[in-house]
Amino acid sequence: MKIGSLPVYYAVRTAFDLMFAVRGGLSVRGRENVPTGEGLLVVSNHMSHLDPPALACAVRQRRLLAMAKEELFQHPAFGWLIAKIGAFPIRRGEADLESVKLAMSYLEAGESMIVFPEGTRSDGVRMLHIERGVSMLAKKTGVKVLPVGINGTQVLMPRGAKGRWRHHVRVAIGPPFTYQEVATGRNERENREKFALEVQNRIIAQCRETGLDLQPPASLSEPAGVLDAPQNVLVPEDKP
To answer: Which residues have a Cβ under 8 Å from the Cβ of 162 and sit 6 or more positions away?
Structure first.
């Protein structure tokens, strides 16, 4: 099973390495927690368009795949590039089961994939509730889930505002876990809620390792979507 081009992925990642270095640097804690040789879901807080490249630069042991909204692939050059770095399209706002099955097949084949479980960018103060899609992928594939906290991208490139030119970005990577280890409820709904709470708490814990006191959402809710599309590893998901 082949997706994208490793040389292109590494070239783009190198470009972002240089960008972060010029604009204040990027430091990483917990790289030893990244498992190799098996499928992996990388889950993180999401505050900026720079979060995906920050993850790609931080989790250097793995090539990170992700889904991107279908419209991005309609631009010939840009669509070619994001496909080469490991993106594949999903139709947002509907149950795109083909893309979900493709994502599952990549994970089961040992690939690693970014999922932003909040579904969209937060304000960097309070986390949004965890979307259902990450629970479904983790349960059905049985792969390890890697919690990551990011701090600083929201200063370099905040949502809807002009950012600073230079600011240090910090990434903290926690120990991996699986759906089966934490889904110990009496029924499936309770299992999803337990897993979502675990994802939320572990991401918040890693954010605090970076110095970001990210607060939990006001309530833990469960949207009805089949899969809330995660974004591409190096591609912003929408406009401010």
So the answer is: none
